[in-house]
Amino acid sequence: MEAFQGLHAPGLKKRGHGHGNRSWIKIDQDGNSKILELDKATIMRHCSLPSRDLRLLDPLFIYPSTILGREKAIVASLEQIRCIITADEVILMNSLDGCVVQYMSEFCKRLQTNREQAEDLPFEFRALELALDLTCMSLDAQLQKLHWVKSGQPFNNSFMYDGTLGLQFRLVI
């Protein structure tokens, strides 16, 4: 054991404070957004989440798409959108992915335009609804692209996406 004391390996990172900060986008109920640098411990305390829930959001790990309902937050790890939704804010993992940018701009726009109107859904459900809508649209686009590559012809509409009704299946005979 003593042989390893004082060992200095230049390629290895030490674990400790200050490491592990990630870039997140915080969107509040008014549609205001800002970019934050947060570490896992801060997010865990703020949202009352265990570390295993945050592991689902880590882009270095591969997990199936998951939505977890916790006491104070919803953890959504979908295709390109990974976020924590609370009663009054969305903490979205910052990424250069177009889906993340689209989520942020669309959600902020929806919140700011619907400020005067009485919404029938709570904030957290509206945030989750948009994440699911964008995921369905992304999967639909991938499906169409795969069909085009496979057959060389446009997609035959056996799947149809409607922003209000979600992804629907129609039998084509």
Automatic annotation (TrEMBL):
- Name of a matching Pfam family: MRS2-like
Q: Which parts of the sequence are annotated with region: Disordered?
A: 1-24
Task: Tell me one GO molecular function of this protein.
Answer: magnesium ion transmembrane transporter activity
Q: Which domain of life is it from?
A: Eukaryota
Matching Gene3D superfamilies: 2.40.128.330, Magnesium transport protein CorA, transmembrane region
* Basic residues compositional bias, start-end: 11-20
PANTHER family, A to Z: MAGNESIUM TRANSPORTER MRS2-5 (PTHR13890:SF39), RNA SPLICING PROTEIN MRS2, MITOCHONDRIAL (PTHR13890)
What protein family does this chain belong to? Answer: Belongs to the CorA metal ion transporter (MIT) (TC 1.A.35.5) family.
| Protein's name according to its UniProt entry | RNA SPLICING PROTEIN MRS2 MITOCHONDRIAL
In its UniProt entry, the species of origin is given as: Salix koriyanagi
